[in-house]
Specification:
Elements (H helix, E strand, L loop, with lengths): L16 H9 L6 E11 L2 E10 L4 E7 L4 H14 L6 E3 L4 H10 L4 E3 L6 H16 L6 H18 L8 H11 L1
Parallel strand pairs: 1-4, 4-5
Antiparallel strand pairs: 1-2, 2-3
Length: 179
């Protein structure tokens, strides 16, 4: 007996089939990683969105947590190193002590830069997330925010080309190929 309901396949993890394909097509990412965290509200409760971008502004990974301590930074670094095919030459962060403690705990030997204004690329990359969050009228849960932001970042990387490096005609061709 047909009840009119369609079966919907539920996908586990953060990546949907489309974003898995996009991740395979993603080009080579740079070896300078910029990490930052920003406050987001989920159902009126303050949470933290940890983000990593490369020197071109392409998002590497996101992580949503309830706290901003060493344990959360450690989880973020482990997830980040597991998902990326190669390790960075340098990691640039703000002066949050959790980053340094987590890197020391993991035991990786990577240059860690915390100089002032060096992390502006990561700070600027939060603007797209803020804009999307306003359009969606905030996220309702950590799981929803994590899944959406992970997929949104990958899709955004695919469609965002380095406009300042190309002629207008080349840029139009690249955009058409993306679609």
């Amino acid at each position: 007996m047909y009840t009119g309901f369609h079966t919907i396949k539920v996908f586990r993890g953060n990546a949907t089939p489309i974003t898995r394909q996009l991740k395979k097509k993603q080009g080579k990412l740079s070896d300078e990683w910029f990490l930052d965290e920003v406050f987001i509200k989920l159902n009126g409760v303050q949470h933290y969105l940890w983000r990593a971008v490369d020197q071109d502004g392409c998002e590497l990974d996101v992580f949503v947590s309830k706290c901003r301590n060493k344990k959360a930074a450690l989880k973020f670094f482990r997830k980040l190193f597991r998902t990326q095919p190669r390790k960075p030459r340098v990691i640039i962060t703000d002066k949050l002590p959790s980053y340094k403690a987590a890197l020391r705990n993991i035991g990786v030997n990577i240059n860690h830069d915390t100089s002032q204004y060096a992390n502006n690329i990561a700070e600027i990359s939060h603007q797209k997330v803020r804009q999307q969050q306003r359009q969606m009228r905030n996220f309702k849960s950590i799981k929803h925010a994590q899944k959406f932001l992970a997929n949104h970042g990958l899709i955004n990387n695919f469609f965002r080309h380095q406009r300042h490096l190309a002629k207008a005609s080349t840029y139009r061709i690249l955009r058409e190929e993306s679609f």
